[in-house]
Amino acid sequence: MNPIQMELGPVITALDGFELTDADRRRLCHPLVGGLTLFAGNYADRAQLIRLCADIHALRTPRLLIAVDHEGGRVQRFREGFTELPPMRLIGRLWDQDRECARAAARAAGLVLAAELRGCGVDISFTPVLDVDHGASSIIGDRAFHSEPAAVAELAGSLLDGMQDAGMAGVGKHFPGHGFIAADSHLELPVDERGMEAIRHCDLVPFRTLAPRLAGIMPAHVLYPAVDPRPAGFSPHWLQSVLRRELGFAGAIISDDLGMQGAAGAGGMEARACAALQAGCDLVLACMAESADVLLEALQFTMPAVGRRRLMAMFGAGALEKNRVRAAEAPLQQARSTLARAFA
Known about the structure:
Helices cover 40% and strands 12% of the residues.
């Protein structure tokens, strides 16, 4: 079957299983869809993942973006057949002992992460985590590199170096910072009472430092009432005044999952998507197939050309040919050895 020629849209959706169903194909061929994100429930083994990604990429031209949350530690969707990546906090602890070793470990983690995913056909991982660890958030916790903003920026930059060595772009999250409050935005709307100056001089530092190098940034479903009455992902102030103008970010702004309870205050799925897109998001995540179908049936939106350009920049360096995969095997093995030595 020849792929359908169709422009990509702003919705990043999901699948229910290990292979495409007729319902999945209909959803993925909807003109509002621009890609999908995979989860552990979509993974059986590497061979299955390679087939699944090939089937997805064969559906449409331009092909759909395939993404995953694959950070390391407890947020690593694919386990069997993949290198076990450390939580980023361990790299931060290494930084406190030996900064050069920590930079090398972060770069090695980025290369392993990206090369193993791209070797299966996955285009991008929603990483690095740029949240500063304030010791309060259980949902961030050891996903954060460090409690010092400059250390977060330095180590995340090294992780990006490794990802880019393997041809993968990066997506920073969760703007402007999710690490200060204990509440989990999957379950409720967290409220961070700090003012703008406290956030600017701490949590924004990694985003400001790395904004020119990121293909995407994901805002937090967090409310900062001293700054704006809307959660960051629905706030023109945060997304346009701060992220675009103050930080100069030119890449894609990608909402966190609209199915999370932190987004519920915006209304139903259509209202949430409209609020995010109107605030300045280029792409919106609908990570449950059923809710994505509801959204796609209701949403009326024409994706602007700049949004499509930002989406296409997230594909990184393109598909890896077999000879390039073989050529990359030596640095990949070296990176695995670097990680093993650093955390032996």
